[in-house]
Structure formats: structure tokens, C-alpha cells
Amino acid sequence: MERAQEHVSTGGPDQPARRPGETGTALELLVHGVGGTTPQEMLNDPRTVRITGDNIAAVFRRADDVDAETSPDSHRRDGPVPEAYVWCNLTSGNGTRALWLLLLPFMVVNLAHWMRPTARGRRRTVRLYGLLVRLAGLTLTVLLVAAACEVALDLAAWQCAGTPACADRHSWLGFLSPAVSDGGWWSSPGRRLALAAFVPTALTALLWYLSKRTWSDYESQQPIDRAPEPDEYGSPTALGRPGFWYGRRLVARLRAAHTAAGLITVAAAVASAAARRDREPGGPALLNILGLLLEAALAACAVAVVWVVCRRGRSERRLDRELDERLVRRLPLAALVLLGLALLYAGWERPGWESAGRLPGDMTFGGIALVQGLLVIVLAVVAHTLHRTDPDRRAVLRGLGGPAVAMLACALGGVMSGGVSQRVSDWLDGTGTSIDGPPVLLTWQASVIPPLLVVLLVLFGWLGRRAWQLARAEREAVARDYPDEAQDRARTRRIAYTRAMAALTDRGPRIVAVTSGVTLLLGAGALVGALTTDETPGEAAQGTYPVVHGAAETAQALGSWLIGLGFILFVTWGRRAYKDAAARRTIGILWDVGTFWPRAAHPFAPPCYAERAVPDLTWRMATWTRTTGGRLVISGHSQGSVLAAAAAWQLAPSARKRVALLTYGSPLERLYGRWFPAHFGPAALSSLHREVDCWRNLYRLTDPIGGPMRLPGDGGHHVDHGPLKDPLAYGRTDPLPLPAPILGHSDYQADPAFAEERRKLLARLRPGLPAPRHPGEPPCPGPEEDPQSNSGRSSA
């Protein structure tokens, strides 16, 4: 791939402008969608040149267009200069992206932060919503580290190494076993725990490193720093605020707090076992006092962690370059010192101390589950209160999308932690009789997975029936859309089925609602069962009806196997993604959607690629409009349209008026507007329509992701092109002698409507200042000008 230095001015927006002749050259800035692509495919040319950017994200041109705006023949161009912004390496670059699968619960809970309903005049309630999500994120960190402690400290070092039968089967644990090593130095229970603490400590350090590394690569990119213009205030969305895409201060604070929380969890797991031994009758008085002081210090540090998480949210109204350096350094350092003291305290010689039973972990996992359930319930109350202040009929679950997703994040974290514990326990204890195994609560949580899967199967059956009904209804619509064609029953069914499957996207909120609600109820039942019986489901059901006992035994065994299967698939998928670029790109689609938002609730979530991509696009648009007079169309497909809208909001209003927006296959309203109403709701999209020079949106009924904008009033009339025909031809025609494929979400540029809409947008734009809109003049070409508006139906 060819490279070149940038041939156009890319100076800051406040630097003296260099206008290359005001030739009127137009620019089309193409932004691809999920999954990524190559600049050659985007520009339809094998010879491309990188004009600005790096190996992670860059802007490319055709080799023949490098000097298009300064060339003497630029006025003879028939179309705009195409540029391609390629950002796919932000989410699916090298093999380390496969490690992000471990961070999936953190990403999901971070999404819940941005799903709050629209609210006006409820700043305290909005802050409370963000605080509750941040606390839920903190519990997920503690849960993950506690699961690592359960595996390393309890199952391996405490139970297996302390049981001769288990230690004999695993020779690598021999030096920790009092029987195998004949009372060796490491065989003391406290020293075993201190050595095993290296595993959860290393996990915490890995999470810190990943967050720190990605923080320097992504969040360190500064947006344009400019003085706000008078007409910027009162915007219905926060996406245009100067500091929205620069959250490094909050990420640094949360990273310090979560790192300290992980280290404190390890220290508490090690110290609590030794302190319990010292409190027994006849225990050493001095060590008992030291244990009490250490536990008090750990509690104080835990309170400091919670205070840091609660103290500050995001600062978006200004570009905040400050860092709380003392806090960021001292809090993890204090937790590390306490961990070192805990290891020394546990490793002290205690004659006669033997390991038996389980470490006191049931209370830990039970407490985490209880706190998470209460946080989700309170979050739902707060979200409902916000929704009532400014109801949005299109918002999913009537504003409860955030609490539902937060519940799924907690459930996902519980399944992952319980799955690892169950698998390691089965691996260590092949007979199932030598060690007690993981805490009872984890077994109960595994046992509720089969009932949850039954509910999901019923839901998918309902979706299948609904798709069949929609497909039958769409057959008549397909016949109306192709009235002059001889009908082919198989062809009609295929088109109708594709439309029906695409329409199922709008039923997604119901799936999330039912899954989240059932998960909350089953999780509460598992918690109550574990705390009241202190036995596994099979043991607790003994003496009851045979049907009940059989169901409990089946659920317990099946749940354990399902968790094991899921864990194996999870590891296999990650391993394949690490080695296979194609598989890594598939996983990258998940990150394209899930990591668009800044890390506001969890610092260990995968990094926000938009904190790099949005400033890139904003700088490119700002410098172009400043140096050339401003003929620019930003053309975004799928997730690229979301980046394009976010970048347009970051422009100054004067520059925003020089930009036209062309979106196709866009989830702006269908997904983002419904799931994130506070930022992409009707008011926000309507303001974007008013503030850019023109906006046109293309979609298909066969597209499961893109859809119309549905702006209120005349906004939707002027923004949305009628649904494009897909396929372009029903049968064989002279222009298309072979059967036309059903394109769905791809290849929008192959439709003639795309070139026509782009031509109309460019015709409106002129070099220099944009022409004022006269009273009664539509802001964009209306649908009466659309040559291919085949029907007025909107997406189902």
C-alpha cells in the first residue's frame, strides 16, 4: 500500500487558513461500518495512498487524487474527491484483541451507563443513575478477582493441597501438601495461601496493564479545543460537548479504584483465613491483634475505594486535561502495601494449623450477588423516574433498558466466575469425593442455567413463529413492489423471508426484558436456596418428592456441564481469534457495537475506539471546511454513520452548516435512538438535521440493522429516502441479465439512489459560506424528487 505525506493542510482549526484557490473541489469522506474493510474496496481502486493517520486508523485517497484540490484540472472533475477513513484496526487489529473476550461483562455494564432515559431538569437523578452503574461495575471487578481467589486459594492451595488423595493425583501441588512434602516449609496453610495469591494478583495486574495500555492508545487523543459559539448552548445531546470524547481523567480514577479493589479482595481472602485461626481459643494474642488491625485497614481502604467511585463522574462541558495523580498513584500503592502485609501475616508460623473444609467464600459470593440485585432494582426505580419526566415512546422497555442490561452483565459475570470454579473443581477432584468443591452458591447459580435456557428456547420459538407470520404478510408486499414482474413463488418467499428476519431486530427489547427478569428471579431463588440450606440443590432436595429431587439433581448436573461447555467454547473462540485474523474480525464486530461509548462505568472494559475515531473525523472535516470553502459530504455506512453523526456534533456550528450528511444502513434511530435515548433520541436527531446543511438517509426493508430516522414533523419527510428496492430487479432484465442478489445490509453504493442522493447533496453545497435557507425552502430534497421511492412503507 502506498503512503504519502498529507498534501492538504491539516493545521489546527485556529491556525491561519490556507485556501488553495477556492476551486470548489468537493470532498466525500467515506466511513465504513462494522467488520471493517480495506481502503481499496471503499475507494474502488487498487492503488491507494495514506494521506494522514497511522497503522491503527487513517485516511486514504486514490493515488490519482492525492493533489486533487490543488491540481489545475480540479475544476473539471465530475464528482467529489473520495476519501476513506479506515478504523477497523481499532477493534480487530492484532491478536491481543482476543483477550478482550475476558472483559465482556465489563463492556456490557458500561453500556448500561449510556442507556439512561432522556431527562430534563433532573441532574441529581441523572448523577444517581451513573453512580449506581459505577457501583455495579465495581462489584463485577470484585466478583472476577474473588473467582480467581476461589480457584487458586480455596480449591488448589487450601482444599486439594491439604487433602492427600487430591495432592497425590496432582504432583505439581506436592510441595504444598503436608503429607507429600513431609511437612515442608510451604506446606503451612498460611504460606500456601500466600503463594497462591500470586494468581489473582497477576490477574489484577493484567487488567490494570490492559487498561493502562489502551488508555494511552485511545483516550489520550485530544479532541479539538475551541471556544464554544453562542448557539451551542442548550443542545439536546451531550455528544457535542467539548469533553465528551476525552474521559481520561475519569478512566484514570476508576482504574486506580478498581485496581485497589482487586488487591484488597486478594488481601482479604488471605488474611481472613489466618485471622479466623488466630481468633480460635488458645490462639496467639499478638497475631490476633495484628489480624484485627489488618482487617480494619483493609476495611478503611475499601471505604476509600467506594468513595473514589462515588465521588466524581464524567466532566464533559470542558476539555479536562487534569489528572488526579496523587490519587491514581497512592490508592493502588496503599492496597499493594496492605496485600504485602497480609501475605506476611498469613505466612507466619502457626503450629497445629491444618486446612479443612472450604475457605469462607459463601458469604463473599452471596454478598456480591445480593448487592448486585439491590443495585439493579434501585437502578430500575431511578430509570423509571427519569423516563416519566420526559417520556419517549420509542425508548426500549419504557426507559428500563439500562437496568435490564446491567442485570445481564451481572449474570454474565456470575456465569463466567462460576464456570471457571466448577471446571477447576471437577479437574482437581476427578472422583468428586476428596474435596468439598466450590461454594454452594456457585452450584446453585449453575443449577438455574437449564431453566433459563428453557425460557430462551420458548422465546426463540416465539420469534420463529413471528418471523413465519411476517414472511406470509410480506409476500403480498413483495408482489406490490414488483408489479410488472412474472411472480416466482420461490423468489417471492426468499425476499419476504429476508424482510421478516430483518424486522425481528425490533423484537430484541422483549428478549432482553424477559431474559433479564427471569435471570433476576432465578438468581434471587439461588441466593435464598444457598443461604437457607447451605447445601447443593441435590442435597437440599433429598427427602422431598422424587420428581423434585430428580429435577434438582438433573439441573445441578446439567448446569455444571453447560457451564463447562460454555467455558470450553469461550476459550476455544478466544484461542482461534488470537491466531486467525478472520475470526478476530468477527469478534471485532461485537466490539464495534459495544465499545463505541467511553469507559464511564468500568475502566477495565475494552477501550472506546470512538475517542480516537471521532476526533480524527472532526479534525479532518474542520480542516477541510476551513481551507477549501467547505464542500463536504460525510458518507457513513452502518456504524460509520454513528461515527459521522458524533463527529458532526463535535464541529463548531458554523462549520457544521457547511457539511452534508449521507447515511445508509444506519442504526442511528433503530438501535441507538431506542437503546440510548438520552443521546440519540428524537430531539437529538432533529437538532442534527437542523444544524447540518442537509441530511439524507437510505435504508432497505431487508436490512436488519439500518432503518429510517423517523424524525418528528417534516424532519423525517426530508431526511428519509423511501425504502430502496432489494433486490434491484425481481427477475432477469437487460441491465441485470443474471439474478440480482438480496443485499440486505451491504453494498448500498451499488444502488442508483446512492449516486443520485450524493449528487443532490453536492449540488446544494457551494464553496465559501453555505447559502442561507429561505422561508419555505425545504432543508433537503424531498421524497417527491426521489427517483426510486418504490413505496412509502417504513421498516417493520
TrEMBL record:
Which InterPro entries does this entry report, sorted A to Z?
A: AB_hydrolase_fold
* Sequence segments annotated as region (Disordered): 1-21, 762-796
Q: Where are the transmembrane segments?
A: 128-148, 193-210, 256-275, 287-310, 331-348, 363-383, 395-420, 440-463, 511-531, 555-574
Protein biosynthesis is among the record's keywords = no
The UniProt keywords, alphabetically, are: Membrane, Transmembrane, Transmembrane helix
Listed Pro residues bias regions:
769-782
Q: Which domain of life is it from?
A: Bacteria
* Full protein name: Integral membrane protein
Origin species, per record, is Streptomyces purpurascens
